[in-house]
Amino acid sequence: MSDEQVQTGPATQTRRALLAGAGALGAAVVLSACGGDDSDDSAGGDSAPSGGAAATGGTGDSGALASTADVPVGGGLILAAKGVVITQPEAGTFKGFDPICTHQGCPVSNVDGGTINCTCHMSKFSITDGSVKSGPATTALAAKELKVDGDQITLA
Predict the structure, then answer these.
(1) pTM for the whole structure
(2) Any idea where the Rieske domain is (predicted)?
(3) How many CA atoms lie within 13 A of 91 on its CB side?
């Protein structure tokens, strides 16, 4: 075979199928890790952990999302199963945002360096107002109203 020739055929197709399968398996592992057991409440039943990005609007008054001590100053906390990202851009100021990236609907994955980050396509959003800091996203994360009562944070 010369340097200009590229091997195609069954060997190439098998390698592609293997790589595609490995990628799908990796994605399944990552997604299953996102659905962790965030609470031990028995009131939620079987449907609570599988809520994904659905907001808990009806239960916002019955239980806290987090304690103020759980949210680092200059950082945040992603509560995907409860449908909210809570940030603390400056001491004592708490902000809430939708945990779904506005680019293509991936869940945001971490809060670091003053931004809420989506590692699907590397969009970054401000922890202060949810605005886009870097794309490909062009639309800010939707704000969620929070209520802080003592050291407990709930949806308003």
Answers:
(1) 0.59
(2) 63-155
(3) 0
